[in-house]
């Protein structure tokens, strides 16, 4: 029956059950309306998840001593933010073993704590008209460490709530996996362009005109009278010469188009986690009960 602190058993109890977190700040009062201290923490049964002890910091009442208080002896008043312990005196608190660390809470340690509180539990259970029975109830019982169960002493370990007039309410909790998703940036693709230069060559055929002068001697020339000869001084024959010159220039044309877009790929992400669930343990002690499930 290992005991662990509340925060170790319910890591997220502050977010899910703020009412439990409030109990850790309640003041503890004993008989005579004397403030014993305040709840420092809560010890939970690691097997069942049930509250077993309030860790009470006695503050200046007993010089800062921390003691364990079985949850069944405390009457919780949420409106007053107090836990009342009937029959508890300062002398009894001083006699309680000092709580230091969780590792020291073994069966022998708990028996010391239970031994101090059993007379209180027995006195509370006894009526004023059965003083003899009450005296016999004060006899310390003997339990075996191998068979002991917290259910053997309900007066010590059954929660009491003074605000509950119709009986006690025990809340059963379970853990669930909540699947959600977040959008985050995983990367960035930048597409740009730059200019590269190269030497291009182009061949253009061109034409050039040139004058060819051909001289011939007639073989059948007929002689004429010199007076009839048509001699003309200064006569000129003109021939225009042309040539082609290359006209080379540059122009920009669209060589290629690049289109950038995004596509969404769908996949299913799976996660496996261990979750806990509280189940109800019912000890009828031979009594008939009706289990109404809402």
- List segments where confidence is low: pLDDT < 50 over at least 5 consecutive residues: 127-137, 164-168
Question: How far is the N terminus from the C terminus?
Answer: 31 Å
N-to-C order of helices and strands: EHHHEEEEEEHHHHE
Describe the main β-sheet briefly: 8 strands, mixed
Number of strands: 8
Q: Report the mean per-residue pLDDT as an integer.
A: 80
Can you count the helices?
A: 7
The CATH architecture name of the domain at 3-161 reads: Alpha-Beta Complex
CATH-defined topology of the domain at 3-161: Photosynthetic Reaction Center, Chain H, domain 2
- Overall shape: rod-shaped
Q: Quick one: CATH superfamily of the domain at 3-161?
A: Photosynthetic Reaction Center, subunit H, domain 2
CATH class membership of the domain at 3-161: Alpha Beta
* Rounded radius of gyration (Å): 54 Å
Name the helicity range.
10-25%
**Percent of sequence in beta strands:** 5-15%
Structural class, from secondary structure content? Answer: alpha+beta
């Amino acid at each position: 029956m290992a005991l662990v602190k509340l925060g170790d058993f319910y890591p997220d109890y502050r977010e899910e059950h703020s009412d439990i977190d409030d109990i850790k700040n309640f003041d503890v009062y004993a008989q005579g309306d004397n403030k014993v201290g305040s709840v420092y923490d809560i010890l939970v049964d690691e097997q069942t998840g049930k509250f077993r002890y309030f860790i009470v910091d006695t503050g200046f009442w007993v010089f800062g001593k921390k003691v364990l208080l079985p949850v069944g002896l405390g009457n919780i008043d949420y409106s007053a933010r107090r836990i009342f312990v009937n029959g508890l005196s300062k002398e009894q608190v001083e006699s309680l073993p000092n709580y230091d660390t969780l590792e020291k809470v073994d069966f022998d340690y708990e028996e010391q704590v239970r031994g101090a509180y059993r007379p209180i539990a027995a006195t509370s259970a006894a009526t004023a008209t059965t003083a003899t029975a009450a005296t016999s109830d004060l006899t310390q019982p003997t339990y075996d460490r191998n068979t002991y169960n917290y259910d053997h002493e309900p007066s010590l370990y059954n929660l009491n709530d003074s605000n509950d007039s119709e009986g006690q309410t025990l809340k059963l909790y379970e853990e669930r996996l909540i699947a959600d998703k977040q959008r985050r940036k995983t990367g960035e693709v930048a597409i740009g362009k730059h200019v590269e230069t190269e030497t291009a060559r182009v061949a253009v055929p061109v034409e050039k005109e040139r004058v060819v002068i051909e001289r011939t001697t007639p073989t059948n020339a007929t002689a004429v009278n010199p007076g009839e000869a048509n001699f003309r001084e200064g006569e000129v024959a003109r021939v225009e010469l042309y040539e082609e010159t290359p006209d080379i220039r540059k122009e920009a044309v669209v060589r290629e188009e690049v289109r950038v877009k995004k596509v969404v790929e769908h996949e299913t992400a799976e996660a496996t986690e261990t979750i806990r669930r509280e189940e109800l343990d019912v000890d009828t002690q031979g009594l008939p009960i009706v289990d109404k499930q809402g």
